[in-house]
Amino acid sequence: MYEFVSGPLVWVAFIVFIGGMAVKTVSLLKLTSKKDKVVFNHLHLGWSIRSILHWLIPFGSDGMRKNPVFTIAGFTFHICLLAAPIFLVAHNVLLDESWGFSFWTIPDKIADWMTLLLIAAAIVLILRRLILPEVKIVTTGLDYLLLAVATAPFITGYMAYHQWLDSELISIIHILCGELMLIIIPFTKLSHILLFFLSRAHIGSEFGERRGAVTW
Amino acid sequence: MAELAVDTNVIKERLNFLKGGRFKLWLEICAHCGLCADSCFFYLAHDKDPKYMPSYKVMKTLGELYNKNGEVDRATLEKMADIVWGDCTACRRCSMYCPFGIDIATMIAAARAILCTQGLHPEALKAAIENYKNTGNQMAISTEEFVETCEWMAEETEEEVRGLVIPIDKQNADMMYTVNAREPKFYPQDIAEAAQIFHVAGENWTMPTTGWDDTNLAMFAGDGKTAAAQVKLVYDAAERLGAKSIGVTECGHAYRALRFEGPYWLGLPGGKPPVPVVHSVELFYNYVKSGRIKIDPAKKVTMPVTYQDPCNVSRNGGHAEQARYLVNALCTDFRDMQPNREHNHCCGGGGGYIPMGPPFRRRRMESGKVKADQIRETGAKMVIVPCHNCFDQLKDLSKEYNLDIQVVHFKTIMPHMMILPDEMKPVPKAEAEEE
User: Fold this and answer.
1) Which among B25, B104, B260 is the top mutation candidate for probing chain A, defined by the most A β-carbons within 10 Å of its own β-carbon?
2) CA B211, CA B232: separation in Å to the nearest integer?
3) How far is A72 from chain B (nearest CA, A)?
4) A69 — contact with chain B (CB < 8 Å)?
5) Are residues B302 and B179 in the same domain?
6) B315 touches chain A (CB under 8 A)
7) Is B433 within the bounds of a domain?
8) Within 13 Å, how many C-alpha atoms sit on residue A135's CB side?
9) What is the pLDDT of residues A132-158, one digit of tens each?
10) How far apart are CA B112 and CA B106, in angstroms?
11) Does the domain formed by A2-211 have CATH 1.20.950?
């Protein structure tokens, strides 16, 4: 079972993730260039980059400054979401064994803290949805589910590393959680990992190049 | 009352048409984060009642149309119409504040277009659209009436500014000036004031006998066909007269329709109008900055003044800085609202909300609380605003919230401060009496 989830299933997960995102993005760009002339007529590299950067830097926009709790929780969540898995020693060992290369690594203690911070951030994001009326009113079951799917690899990863319960079973579950998350990315709002850049490039250009106003 | 049918096929066709590109993207990636909420003045003015938050308004209208694939009954469509026209002015502030850059207001506009196909746009807008179709202008003014009004205004003003003419249908002018239809109807002095400014600036300008109305309530109503026809009237006039640019009176949505939306309604290449479209703010800014118009410092406004950023001139037009240059050139005590420039709030009346008339008046007084508070905090006694809808709304807000402010356009105050070249100065009284 372990061989299956850490072998063929990894292939499946990455092919669906990368292939799915590629198909989605290309078809979106093609459709847009045909049906939505206003997008490509005004796309401007400078305004796109500025709009993206102002929303990638904590408190870089007025909206973020007005929502500090969300900004801190959101950035904590995303930074840990990316950094912990990519720079984890255990993952890089596997990467090296399979493909002969690896990234820089971080000490396990740091990865541990990142994992706990991510879980704390996820709790804040869930509480936001339950408590704030303007968030509750637009929240659906899927929002909670996706948050759970994104957080599960970290909870199970923590458990696997610290060898809680049955170590091999937890590892298998951890890998499955990670694969699940990758597979659903192209089919849900999680696709924002790439589409954020496209939608911001458009609105940044639409307001910046076309109208002469900022989008932050 | 007979139950009106819902033409589901038309709705489905529209939904399909929209699903290309941007709309598909936006509907998929909205993360339901809720950050758009406190960017919206409707939400803020109603004590943060969540039903006024932007993405919720989209979910209940365009979102629901997609979810049900257009298969909804008339009653549901009526509720949607009430949201998209009554709870939103499409000011686009939410589009600025969305972390993903989703153009939320444009989705409301798309919902309006769909509901318009079902005849659900507000009655008062329907009347205006009839006028556009029958007479080419919102107020059903005949060409004779229009020309007479211009001639009358020229006569009234030429004593104060010698040599002043209002050229009609002049060929090859640098600028073909267009006005809000209510100017010839109710505020002809606006035309006189603009004429004075253009005359002193030495502008080579004209007005056309047809295509002089730059308003476009069809845009607010979601009636793309009539909106396009209106814009075409103006573009055709410019072409007919060989004008090098189209000037727009101090009106917000007129500028947006002619400069930005019109070219796309008409499928013009690159989304550009046939000649440059210039708003009055830019025209006046150029005159004052270049010195074509000199302002007498002794006549500047000394009372505290603030500036209302019309959504379609600042946020959606980019003229926030030019306007402020102008305000500072004309006034000594300028106090900016907070927030300001493209971050400023909608007044609540703009784009076409006021023309929807009495059924919506109470709601715009309620939502206008945010603007009223902004004005009160500046301590200003006068608000300068280059937009007709804002103008009316601010006057109403002043009464409703006891702001005790004067509301003026730039062209209301500029003529009094312009230094007239000698040849334009009025004839001395003694000589005039002899005539």
Assistant:
1) B25
2) 8
3) 14
4) no
5) no
6) yes
7) no
8) 17
9) 999 999 999 999 999 999 999 999 999
10) 10
11) yes
